[in-house]
Structure formats: C-alpha cells, structure tokens
Design brief:
By secondary structure, the protein is mainly alpha-helical. Among the domains are: 67 residues; 78 residues, 2-Layer Sandwich (Herpes Virus-1). The protein has 4 helices and 3 strands. Strands 2-1-3 form a 3-stranded antiparallel beta sheet. It is rod-shaped, with a radius of gyration of 72 Å. The termini are far apart.
C-alpha cells in the first residue's frame, strides 16, 4: 500500500467536514432530502394540473361535440319541419285554388241557369203575346160587328140612325119595332126604314176574312 502524500493527509479532515455537512443538509429540515421532496411535490402538482387541464379540455371538446351534434340534429329536424310546412302550405293553396275554381264554376252555372231561366221566361212571354196577338187577330174589329147580333156582319147595311147593322137583324128589329138593348134606340129614329148597303164595311169584312183565312173569301158581300 502506497504511502499517503502529506497534502493528502491534510485533506482528510476537510473531506470529513464536507461529508458531515452533506449529512447535515440531507437529514435536517431544509436539507437536500427536503428540497427533493418539494420539487417532487411541485412536479406532481404540475402533472396533476396538466392532467386536469387535459381532462377539462377533453370534457370541453366532448361537450362541444355533443352541442354540435345536438345543433345538427335540431337543424335537421327544423329542415324536415320546414319541408312539411311547405308541403302543407302547397296542399292548402291547392285546396284553396280548387275551391275557388269550384266557386267560379258554380257561379258560372248559376249565371247560366239564371240566363236560361230568363230566356225561357222571355220565350214564354213572347209565346203568350203571340197567342194573345193571334187571338186578337182572330177577333174582328168592332166596326165589323153588328150592334144587334154582336157578330161579324155578312151583309152590312146603313139604317136611318146612321149606324151599320146586319141586314137580317135590322130588318127583324124594324118589324118588331123594339128598342135595342145596347144602343137604346127608339122607334122614331127609324121613321125611314130604308136600308142602304155599306160597301165600305163589306170590303173591310172581306179583307179581314181573307187575311185571317189566308186569302179565302168567306163573306157573302
């Protein structure tokens, strides 16, 4: 074993002092061991904080994903609802148009029915007027009617009173000399019993008969 160098012998107490200081620092409060525990606790706290932050971020991301999914679902439901509303609106508009068209058709039919009824009423009125006119045309004018017989004259004559009568009727009246029930003619009005044929009235009777009978002469004038 080699011999110690003098200065090495001199370093031995120093080494002992250093070793003693190291022991003191590692065993006493605030020593090396205490400092290492604090650093370890600090590192652990940092790790826990990082883990917590990471968990919070993950939870936040998860919540955001859930919110996004919910919003997407709501948006899809809203689109479906809008489509349904649009469809219902279109159907309602179609129904309204159909009802309006039906109302227009009903109004047109009602107007056509009213017009047809008016035309029918006008036609009936015209037919009634035609019948009335035909009846009036079949009736001879009053000037061609004998005041005694109240019938169409066949042989009109003018009597002394200036009126025209049927010859047979006035001759019979003159024979009986009675007062006519309509004209209240007295016998003295017929002091002259001469009868004169009324050719004008006879011609009018003939023309009326031809017009009514289509040109066939029926009068005895």
């Amino acid at each position: 074993m080699r011999a110690l160098i003098p200065y090495e012998r001199d370093l031995t107490p120093l080494r002992r002092s250093v070793a003693r200081c190291v022991r003191l620092r590692t065993t006493e409060p605030g020593g090396l061991y205490t400092v290492g525990a604090e650093e370890e606790a600090k590192a652990k706290a940092e790790e826990e904080a990082k883990a917590k932050a990471k968990a919070e971020e993950e939870a936040k991301a998860k919540a955001e994903a859930e919110v996004a999914a919910e919003l997407e679902r709501l948006e899809a439901e809203a689109k479906i609802a809008l489509v349904a509303v649009a469809k219902e609106k279109a159907e309602a508009e179609a129904v309204a148009m159909a009802l309006e068209e039906a109302a227009c058709k009903a109004a047109a039919l009602e107007a056509a029915a009213m017009e047809a009824a008016a035309k029918e009423a006008a036609a009936k009125e015209a037919a009634a007027k035609e019948v009335e006119a035909a009846a009036d045309a079949d009736e001879p004018p009053d000037d061609l009617i004998c005041p005694i017989t109240q019938e169409l004259m066949n042989n009109p004559v003018i009597a002394a009173d200036g009126h025209t009568y049927e010859r047979v009727a006035i001759e019979r009246w003159l024979k009986t000399n009675t007062t006519h029930r309509i004209r209240q003619v007295r016998s003295r009005d017929f002091e002259c019993k001469i009868l004169v044929s009324n050719h004008l009235v006879c011609r009018q009777i003939r023309e009326w008969q031809e017009r009514v009978a289509g040109g066939t002469e029926l009068n005895g004038c």
